[in-house]
Amino acid sequence: MSFDVYEQKFKALADQKRLQILYELCQRGNTCVCDLTDIVDMPQSKLSYHLKILLDAGLITKETKGTWSYYELNPTEISALLSEQLCCIFRPIDKSPGCC
Questions:
Q1: CA angle 21, 23, 84 (to 5 degrees)
Q2: Model confidence over 6-51: pLDDT tens digits?
Q3: Helix %, strand %, coil % for the chain, to 5?
Q4: Which residue ranges does the record assign to the HTH arsR-type domain (predicted)?
Q5: What are 58-86's pLDDT values in tens digits?
Q6: Which of 13, 15, 25, 79 has the most CB within a 10 Å radius?
Q7: For residue 97, what are the contacts with CB-CB under 8 A and spacing of at least 6?
């Protein structure tokens, strides 16, 4: 059994800025990268670096519309990796019946 996949996912989670990005995507849903730069107060170049790590780990998904990229949480992957308590942080309030 190879743990490389899990190592990549947990490394992606082991960063405060990436956790903030995941949280914001959870609260806002499908969000344009142009809006995320203001939300997380980060230049687009640094934000793109963090988004790529999250995307490569499968924790978020990306949809391109014209010249803009929209990102969204991958709830299946988040739920599979995190405890129920941590998943509550990354679930919208209206979609978390019985959470915590």
A1: 135
A2: 889 899 999 999 999 999 999 999 999 999 999 999 999 999 999 9
A3: 60, 15, 25
A4: 1-93
A5: 999 999 999 999 999 998 888 877 776 66
A6: 25
A7: none
